[in-house]
From TrEMBL:
Entry protein name: Potassium channel protein
Pfam families: TrkA_N
Statement: the UniProt record of this protein carries the keyword Chloroplast: no
Keyword Phosphoprotein: no
InterPro entries named in the record: NAD(P)-bd_dom_sf, RCK_N, Trk_Ktr_HKT_K-transport
Amino acid sequence: MGPPLLYAALYLIVATLVLRWDLRRGGEPLPDFTETVWSLWTLLVFEPTEPFPHTPVARAVFWLTPLAGLFLLAQGVFKIGASLFDLATRREVWTSIMTDMMNGHVVVCGVGHVGYRVIEELCILGEDVVAIEQNDAKGFLEEVREKGVPVHIGDARRDELLEKVGAKRAKAVVCATSDDLANLEIALDAKRMNPSVRVVMRMFDQRLAGKVGGALGLDQSFSTSALSAPLIAIQATYEGVHAAYRIDDVVRVTAEVKVGASHAEATVMDLEERLPCRVVSRRKNPDESFAPVRPRDVIRGGDTLVVDTAAVDLPAVRFQLG
C-alpha cells in the first residue's frame, strides 16, 4: 500500500477515535464504530452522510476531513501530471512496464563499450533485452534506449534491482561492467536467484576468468583483450580478415578471398575437398552482397569468397584460389 493510502487509513482511524471520544464526552448519540468510519470516509471523498455535530472537536474533525481529502486528491493529480509531462518519470514507468512484460529475455549489466555492442548484437538476433547501468551519464544510454531496450539505472549488485529486471525469469545474464569483482558478484547473485539462468561474465584477466568460471559453475567467462588479440594480430598481417577465434591452440579466421580470373570453375564441394577451408558465402560482383552457398554451387573466376580456415592455412588458400 502506497504512502497516500496509508496516510488516509491512519487519518480515518485517528479521526474516528477522536470523533467518538468527543461525541461521548458531549453526550451526543454515539453510532456504531463502523458507521463512524464510513461517515468519515464519505466525508473524506466529499459525500457527507451524517449531520453536522454540535461538539467543538467533532466539528473540527468534520472541517478537517474534507481538507485532508482535497490534499490527497491534489497529490494524486500532481503525480499523474508528473507521469504525463515529466520525461524521467515517463521513462521510468515505461521501463518498468516493458520489463514486467518480458520473459526469457537477456539481462545485460553495464552499458559501456562492450555492453553496448552486446546489446546491439542481441537486438539484431531478435532477443528481448533489459539493460542495467549504474551511471546515468554514460554515453551509450540514449543509443540503447533508441533501440527500444529498457534501461534501469542503479547498482546491479543489489538483489532488488536484479529482481526488478526479471533475473528470475531471464534466460541469460551478461555481466559486462568494467569491474571484475562487480561482475563476479552479479554472476553469483544471478545464479543464486535463478540456478537455470545462463551467466556470461566479462573479466580482464583471461586466466583468472577460466579458473573462476570453472570453479563457480558459471556458463562462460571471457576477456575482451583475449578475444580481440587474435583478430588484431591477423588483421595486421593479412587483408580482408573479418573475424578470428581460438579453438584449443588453433586460431581460425573468417576472411575474404578473391578467386583469380584464370581459376578453373569448381563446385564448393570440390574446393572444400581440395583446400583446408570451408566456403561460407560468395559475392559475384562488387556491388552485390555476400550470399550463402550450397555444396553444388559453381565458383568462377572473379568471385569473392568468405572462407573459414586456420590462420596458418590462409596464405595457402589464397595462393591456390588466386
